[in-house]
Amino acid sequence: MRKSYKTHMLFSEPFMRGFRRCFALLLSFAAAAPPALAQSPPPAGRIKVASGSAFIVRKEQSIPAQVGQLVFEGDRLRTGADGRIGATLSDETRVSLGPDSEIRLDQFQYSLAEGRLGLVLGIVRGMVAYVSGRIAKLSPDSIRLETPNAIVGIRGTRMAIKVTP
Q1: Strands 143-146 and 116-131
Q2: Which residues contact 23 (CB under 8 A, 6 or more apart)?
Q3: Which of 109, 101, 148, 156 is nearest to 127 (CA)?
Q4: Who's near 42: CB < 8 A, 6+ residues apart?
Q5: pLDDT band of 14, cuts 50, 70, 90
């Protein structure tokens, strides 16, 4: 003889409606997250040398420069009277600043897959040494070094620039 069991409805209709709403809410959060993460710009490079008074200025905030620290498009590198900074960008471009110097990384695009290549470096003041990297080899017209009085196009080279006020 078979007994009749009354099964408990764990997945009742009200429960399932609530579950669907919760699941839809979680999906909407998950869908919103990737664009927020995609807005974070990739690093343009990294500090390789930092000594004395050396700073990264990001969004008007001065951060003491340290070896290994990431540098992003829009950052400024600034040194004081006893400071020095050396940075290597993702395309192997190297930039070195002597004492009392400042540069702006106005543009840095190094995306081979998307065909976007470009570097605009604003030299505000001081002594700056520049050694071109892969962007200059692949797309020489997309490199510009800007000073208060001149714009220099680069075709793959090494140079030192001194800008005095």
Answers
A1: parallel
A2: none
A3: 101
A4: 90
A5: low
Residue 149's pLDDT band, with cuts at 50, 70 and 90, is confident
**Token code pair at residue 109:** 């695009």
In this structure, of 6-10, 45-49, 146-150, the range with the lowest mean pLDDT score is 6-10
Cβ of 160: how many Cβ atoms within 10 Å? 10
Fold of 45-163: Jelly Rolls (2.60.120)
Extents of the domains making up the chain? 8-40, 45-163
What sign has the CA pseudo-torsion 60, 122, 70, 128?
negative
| 48: number of Cβ within 10 Å | 15
Does residue 1 register a pLDDT over 50?
yes
Closest alpha carbon to 124 in 78, 63, 62: 78
